[in-house]
Amino acid sequence: MTIKVHEKLLLTGAAGGLGQALRERLKANCDVLRLSDRVDFGAAQPGEEVVLADLADAAAVDAMVAGTQAIVHLGGVSVEAPFAPILQANILGVYNLYEAARKHGARRIVFASSNHVTGFYRQSETINASHPPRPDGLYGLSKAFGEDLSRFYFDRYGIETACVRIGSSFPEPRDRRMLASWLSFDDLHRLITACLTTPVLGHSIVFGMSNNAVTWYDNSQARHIGYVPQDSSDVFREAVYARTPAPDLSDPAVQFQGGAFVRMGPME
Q: Is the pTM of this model over 0.85?
């Protein structure tokens, strides 16, 4: 059962893969779901509002946030890319979002951070929220900035944030790495629901993963959120092993949690 604690909820990045997966699911969390992206993704359906906005446009973001009580922020560049678009969407954009939340009184944000904030930890390690960031690229670096900025807005202005370090959220794991980092769409919704409804969120870092037997992430410091994953990558393990080669242990993509992101060259 999902408790509606917000009248109007904003979902940014609604045109992206995870935004599309959450569009119907998040309607159970609010009376009105406001959807936003920078590109046209169709007309509003019953129970929805659609607002087009570029995150780098402060005025557009201000209008996008006005009247909402909570925000699920998935918008921005979601892969490794040149610095210029990352700067506009993930750094200036997240600042614009928090400034708008401060001005309009939105008190709780679920910020889509990433496993790439800690991508340079080894796959032989288990980390928790107290481990320092070790970004594996400009994308991960921008998400580390977003986590720090959200901490500042909590400390100074009291805006609660869950920094959800999303692992690999797809219909099923695509490779052996994702057996550790996989997050089902239903568990993603369960996690966001927990972040929106827990009585006291504060500023929290939570790893976005399903109940996978093999994992690199320890969520013990986020128990106050109440997230209980119900899916697991384990049911896909045999099929993943059958279609993928044995790992080359000399490959940095196998050594480090960030996978292929750790060996990407400069982006132009």
A: yes
